[in-house]
Amino acid sequence: MNVKTIMVIGAGQMGSGIAQVCAMANYKVYLHDLKEEFVQKGMESISRQLARQVEKGKMAADERKAVLERLHPSTDIQNAADADLVIEAVIENMDVKTQVFKMLDEMAPEHAILASNTSSLPITEIAAVTNRPERVIGMHFMNPVPVMKLVEIIRGLQTSDGVYQLIEEVTKQVGKVPVEVNDFPGFISNRILMPMINEAIFALYEGVAEPEAIDEIMKLGMNHPMGPLTLADFIGLDTCLYIMETLQEGFGDDKYRPCPLLRKYVKAGWLGKKSGKGFYTYN
Ligand code: CAA
């Protein structure tokens, strides 16, 4: 089987980044969301990203045009009938994801692979609501998608070897490095990253140091590109909390207990960069 057409479900930050890198790798791409305005916002963000590449001399103007021509805005889920691969990047909520996968299972052709960009939810459970669990897999891209090299590929319990290999190939085609993991809560990336972020929040909560100091220590001392609190703001504090809850529920272990300060910020609507306020303030 050959993947030619990819449909990305969800035109938010992750979905539009995924659509962008797929279109840059010569795939025909549908960028799908529920409302026209969401899709337009995603398309505009891609267009801006590509324009910046042209300004920097990293992309020719006609290449940008060709990439944009390979991108097709969609609000009609029936477009899934044209897809060889669907990559779901909707909100991190099991009910929403399973609804989307049930719908895709009906609409997409039999040969199509259904992938989820979930950052911590079980692929095996998502696959179980479809009639093609062997063709369901996790493709966990990192934010910002155009910059980050990794795609964590999660094998569900029933994912076939052939599907895994094909997804590994597509990942390489889009210029990323695939790394294989099995299906356990938080996979590898967030099982390790989120407890570190949560611990940084505990350190702040307990008054060990100011946010700037915590971040500076991890940046200069460990060579991290961003300190953990800046990174939490960048990811979204609601997402961080949701992932910690998924880890705590999945493993039943107190070491994954979300810091009360994280809960408090999320309750206040302090969600990080996207809401203008988290551990830092943004304009
Ligand atoms: N979208 C696209 N490109 C971006 C970008 C964005 N949001 N932000 C920065 N870039 C590009 C810049 O244009 C620049 O490109 P060029 O080299 O072509 O000029 C390049 O990235 C470097 O940017 P800057 O010089 O402005 O800034 P920087 O060197 O500080 O890098 C960063 C920015 C890449 C975001 C870096 O700070 C970083 O790597 N941070 C950590 C990111 C990270 O850990 N991501 C994973 C989050 S966890 C996750 O995604 C999974 C999950 O499930 C929660």
From TrEMBL:
InterPro entries: 3-OHacyl-CoA_DH (IPR022694), 3-OHacyl-CoA_DH_CS (IPR006180), 3-OHacyl-CoA_DH_NAD-bd (IPR006176), 3HC_DH_C (IPR006108), 6-PGluconate_DH-like_C_sf (IPR008927), 6PGD_dom2 (IPR013328), NAD(P)-bd_dom_sf (IPR036291). Keywords: Oxidoreductase. Residues 6-183 form the 3-hydroxyacyl-CoA dehydrogenase NAD binding domain. It comes from the Bacteria. Residues 186-282 form the 3-hydroxyacyl-CoA dehydrogenase C-terminal domain. Pathway: Lipid metabolism; butanoate metabolism. Belongs to the 3-hydroxyacyl-CoA dehydrogenase family. PANTHER family: 3-HYDROXYACYL-COA DEHYDROGENASE FAMILY PROTEIN (PTHR48075), 3-HYDROXYBUTYRYL-COA DEHYDROGENASE (PTHR48075:SF5). This is 3-hydroxybutyryl-CoA dehydrogenase. It comes from Fictibacillus terranigra.
